[in-house]
Amino acid sequence: MGKGAPMGELRDIWVYLSASPLLHLTLTLVAFQLGDSLYRRFAMNPLLNPVMLAVVMVVAVLLLTGTSYQDYFEGAQFVHFLLGPATVALAVPLYRQFDKVRRSGPAILASLLVGSLTAILSAVAVGVALGGARETLVSLAPKSVTAPVAMGISEQLGGLPSLTAVLVILTGILGAMIGPFILNLLRVRGGAARGLAIGTASHGIGTARALQESELAGAFSGLAMGLNALATAILLPLLWVLIF
């Protein structure tokens, strides 16, 4: 009885805390802070991406406590709300680098067109090679676009928005982890070129990584992220009519 009472009290405390929206908000913030601390502790090793670490920690806690995603999101939705202002804030480095952006107009458009088409066609090609169904291919095609736009495109073309959301997050994390390494191997040194590549391939999560390199890379990455969303929303439906 002596052991059962503390366990019962702990359950009661957990039930009380889980009903508070602050619990899951705090869990999200603490998980990211721990992930970021590990990331910095190991000299910003790209394999220890703080977003990836935070996702793993949050998912582990939800599984261990039997908490549904709906219950978690009710408390953590404030972070979701802040995604809008955070995206708008990307305009600050873009404004500061506006002269360089203006002078690079033709290069940006060419890079964007090639990058957008490559992201779409390579994803579909891999899906076809692995025997993916049509709705899987549709869900996979907009993987390099920011989640709200990608999910909208996927839904309109008959894909699975939930699957698209997962693929978008995985693409962003993977791009942030290995994108700079690949660019180093290819000896791409310019901040503008690196930012365009990372932003086109891995949207917001990649842009956060580009900002850690330099304000110039972050500005071009944020621009590429926004323009790629627009380009994909236009190009993908047209390509889909031609492909299928």
Topology of this structure?
Layout: H1 4-18, H2 21-41, H3 50-65, H4 69-89, H5 91-96, H6 98-103, H7 105-129, H8 134-140, H9 147-156, H10 161-185, H11 191-213, H12 215-243
Helix pairs in contact: 2-3, 2-4, 7-8, 7-11, 7-12, 9-10, 10-11, 11-12
Task: Provide a quick synopsis of the model.
The chain is built from 12 helices and no strands.
Explained architecture:
The chain is mainly alpha-helical. It has twelve helices and no strands. It has helices at residues 4-18, 21-41, 50-65, 69-89, 91-96, 98-103, 105-129, 134-140, 147-156, 161-185, 191-213, 215-243. The longest helix is centred in the C-terminal third of the chain and has 29 residues, at 215-243. It is globular, with a radius of gyration of 20 Å.
List keywords for this structure.
single chain; 84% helix; mainly alpha; 12 helices; 244 residues; 2 domains
Strand content: under 5%
State the separation between the terminal residues, measured CA to CA: 67 Å
Largest sheet: none
Name the helix and strand elements from N-terminus to C-terminus, one letter apiece.
HHHHHHHHHHHH
DSSP strand count = 0
Low-confidence stretches: none
Radius of gyration: 20 Å
Integer tally of domains: 2
| Mass-distribution shape | globular
Estimated helix fraction = over 70%
Number of helices: 12
Rounded average pLDDT: 86
